[in-house]
User: What shape does this take?
Amino acid sequence: MPAIDYHLIFVDDDQDYLLFIDAAMSAKLTREKNSSRLKLHYLSSAPEAFALIHELNGKNEKIAVIVTDQKMSDMTGIELLEQTNTLIPKAFKVLLTAYGTLESAKYAINNNLLDQYITKPIEDPDNFAVLINNALNVYRSREEKDKAEEEVKNYILELEEKNQKIKIMHRATEKIAHLAQGFKKLDLEAVFGLIIEKLPDLFNAQYASLFLLNKENNSLDMVRSNFLNEAYRKPMENLSATPMMVALRENRIIVIPDIKRSDSFTFLGKESLGDACIIIPFAIGNDENTTGDILGNTVEIRGVLNLGRIENMESEDIVFYSASLIQNLMGINILNANLYQKTTRMALIDGLTGLYNKQVFQEFLSKDREFSERSSVPFYLALLDIDDFKKINDTYGHLVGDEILKKLGAIFLRSARKSDIIARFGGEEFAWIIHNCQAEECFNGLERVRNEICSIIFPQSISLSVSIGLSQYFPNSHDSIENLINRADVAMYEAKAAGKNRTIMSREIDFLGCRSDNTNLSN
Assistant: This one.
């Protein structure tokens, strides 16, 4: 434990007297005691003492004792004590005075400026040293007493605050309890809808809009509103002075009972807010007690609910505590729905590439086959395999291989149309369902992707190529998913055998368009 410095200040314009005091202190006062160090200061004028006290006080040093002569040329001792009393209220204060100035000492004691006075001259230096040592102990006792009183005071305040909070929260909870039951939804859009439809009534608000923080775009995105028809995105730097950005940044509920008199904020859509508004921020997942976690990936939800056109606003206590309950209600339900959405997505998506996994892809194939049979509209399946991928893994290691797979997944997602379905079909094999196009268009699109892959430099300066096999599902011809996959697989291996880095169509595809006959493809 580091030593604590205690400062003792002696002020007298008589240098001989200061030397006398120094001798008494040096001989009798222990300067090392209970892990503390005593620092003695001898000053010959009140201004010097005043300056030192200011300096030490500014550094939060402990001034334990001040001893000052009453009669000095520039200032009396009592004047010095009066001017420094608020700076060092706990210091033990001693006044050196002659018999003729005892009235001054009495005045100082009566006004709580003085703890003790000593008449001059000091007859016994030993007794004086003992007095100063006792004064130091009194200072320490005052510190301990103040600390204990502060702890008791804080404890009482804490209890009072908790009791008051319990009462107000109980009233607020009665209003919200029924509503909270309806929030147990796992669909994110349904949660957004409940927030906008139900929460405004708790605050007598007519208008509500919900924003979520978009970290990728550094913006606030409106996800739902009951008065704005079009969703919009605002860059956060353009919102810095708005109440919703302040609320989000400081995680602070903002209540503005009179918008017209509020000069602290810049409002968006001020005409829609009416006379009063409430901004409720929520942040869930930013500490270990509220973090949503999916396989080590922390999920954080941050946003704000804006409420406007509020009539007959309740007292601020009820508003703030109701809003605090709403913070948790919104944040937790949005987080839960978000986690459910992400967890559901994880069951569908390959974690490395971001593409669908094989199981889900098979389900898409089955549904597309059913639709194709009903509508007589064909679709295409492409199988893509990375050329010489085993050699890459053996040479550079699986971590580099994983980076390549991840980058390929991003290329495929970027290249696909909205109607396309892409999946990681095996280790280095990918599958692609393509709708609504002719064979030539489909072939040319795959060639563009293949050429793009050839032009990209992958990690470790690796050049990559893929071999692609393309097949077509023929409705009303006894075709099957197994045959469709097999034809694409055969075409892909033909591409490998022909030298790799090429796209080959299954022989059954009529390059000029879909077959018009009902050829049996079951064999």
